[in-house]
Amino acid sequence: MASAPQPQHLEPPERLVRTVSAWEGEAGRAWLAGLPERVADLLARWELRPERVLSPGGQISMVVLVRQADDTPATLKVGLVTDETRHEHAALARWDGRGAVRLLRAEPDAGALLLERLHSDVSLRSLPEQKAMLEACATLQRLWVPPGEGHPFVSVAEHTARLAAALRERRGQPYVPDEARALVDEALAVRDELCATAPGEAVLLHGDYHHGNVLAADRVPWLAIDPKPVAGEPAYDLAWLVRDRLETLVATPGSQSAARRRVAKLSDSLDVDRDRVRGWALFRAVEAGVWALAVGDRESGELHLEFATWL
Questions:
Q1: Residue 99 DSSP one-character state
Q2: b/e map of 174-185 (b: 16 or more CB within 10 Å)?
Q3: Is 208 designated active site?
């Protein structure tokens, strides 16, 4: 009689350990300690055969390339459940493979998703910037669908209200330079105005859309991954495309003009109001910059705040 298969013990990648420990503290370390056991349990119950753990992988999730019982390739993602990631499965189910990776199975409370296999080492960052932006826009348009009746997605106004509250609290902290506080005030005022004047009906937004979150696929050329879904206006989703490849943009002569041209080109190509794209890019860059300063990532924080001044 054949013996039962032994549980697969896979260790989380170094980057996952580092980021979750830094961002979540003791709670994050406790989650990491139980992660190998949770992954082993999912592999056994879902009848998956692991091939390898992706490294560096996600910042708050462990990603394992697997084979299903019928030998079909798939990807197992087990992530930290947060307010931003809680409804990732619902967004993927709503898109049902249209513009985004297809969801095969999920246990949302455990942060566990079984996804179709994409080419994890080939993102839009592998393309020249102009071509990558064209492909990014084409893919993003397919994601902007009605969120559905009775949907679980938080609105942009509600989500950014939480971000704005945290930003106000951090504004006076020693890690925020004095010269940046006026920029924080501007970002908060812009956010309030954008929410007060939000146009039209809400659509389902990716929430974290940038070149690194669009991977090469087999059934279509490119598919989005890793949404942090919210419901709201399309301009919000363009904010991260405006600041994509930021390190390269900073090193380019005329960075400020280049950033403003991005706002214009992306707005025009997707028929979205330029001022609203600029406003959300400003707010999101300032919020991300101050958050980075708060967790000790001074280089990223200063970079995002500098970018915000260009807008």
A1: S
A2: eebeeebeebbe
A3: yes
For residue 77, give the CATH number of its domain: 3.30.200.20
Instruction: Answer yes or no: do 93 and 151 share one domain.
Output: no
pLDDT digit string (tens) for 58-99?
889 999 999 999 999 999 999 999 999 999 999 999 999 999
The pLDDT value given to residue 7 = 54
In terms of Cα–Cα distance, which of 34, 86, 87 is closest to 62?
Answer: 34
Q: What is the pLDDT of residue 8?
A: 67
Residue 200, Cβ density class (10 Å: 0-12 exposed, 13-18 middle, ≥19 buried): exposed
Which structural domain range is residue 85 located in? 14-117
* Same domain membership, residue 102 and residue 160: no
pLDDT at position 101, please?
Answer: 98
Distance of CA 222 to the CA centre of its chain: 16
Pick the catalytic residue from 96, 121, 208, 237: 208
In angstroms and rounded to an integer, the radius of gyration of the C-alpha atoms of the chain is 20
3-state helix, strand, coil in the chain (%, to 5): 50, 15, 30
The predicted-structure confidence for 235-248, as pLDDT tens digits, reads as follows 999 999 999 999 88
- The pLDDT tens digits for 293-307 are 999 999 999 999 999
* DSSP-H helix ranges across the chain: 14-45, 88-95, 129-143, 156-171, 181-196, 234-237, 239-242, 246-250, 255-270, 274-294, 298-310
Neighbours of 222 (CB within 10 A): 20
Residue 6 lies in a domain: no
* Mean pLDDT, rounded, of the chain: 94
